Amino acid sequence: MDKYKEIAQHIKEKGYVVAFTGAGISVDSGIPAFRGGQGLWEKYDPMEYAHISSFKRNPEKVWVMLREMAEVIFNSSPSPAHLTLGELEKKGFLKAVITQNVDGLHQLAGNTNVIEYHGNHRWLVCINCSKRVPFEPEVIKITPYPRCERCDEALKPDVVFFGEGIPMREMIRAHDEVSRCKVMFVIGTSGVVYPAADIPYQAKSKGALIVEINIDSTPFTHSITDYFLQGTASEILPNILKYLE
Ligand code: APR
Question: The domain at 1-30+78-118+166-245 falls in which architecture?
Answer without folding.
Answer: 3-Layer(aba) Sandwich (3.40)
